[in-house]
Design goal:
This protein is an alpha+beta fold. The chain has a domain of 113 residues: Chitinase A, domain 3. Helix content is 27%, strand content 25%. It is built from 3 helices and 7 strands; from the N terminus they run ααβββββαββ.
Amino acid sequence: MIKLFQILLLGMLFSCGTQEEEQTIDWNPKKSTDFNRELAIEQDLQIKMFLEQHSDWKMISTGSGLRYDIFENGNGAEAAVGLTAQVETEISLLDGTQCYKTASDEMEEFVIDKSDIESGIQEGIKKMRVGDKAHMIIPSHLAHGLVGDMDKIPPLSVIVVDIHLIGLVP
């Protein structure tokens, strides 16, 4: 019995093999550019399909690919670089999956253009005034890119951000 076990164990060890195949990745700047172009086209189509279901959103597009709709106007100060924005946010995917939401009795703070908040949110917040509420649709290159956020937002995901600019502090 022990002999049989030893033979099986040796067979398993040698059958798994230790040879590693060398893999080369044929990647170059043109392929990277082509990939990014195709991704941008695909995400633009996804966003357009999403907006067909949200026809009441009056989106403004920026040159970067951000789309935003300020659906409730405040009357406070304009957001500007270096100020600390106090916001409530809800972040979801295009399919409606909610990823994050500010707790009802809290707010988030970040320094505009001086923090690690998504560049799409940084760009969009500078279009707002205190009291404004907005929808933002942020393509992956302005959100979490190739890796996602390593938690709830998958890689290469377009995100939808509902944001309320509550206050600005120096």
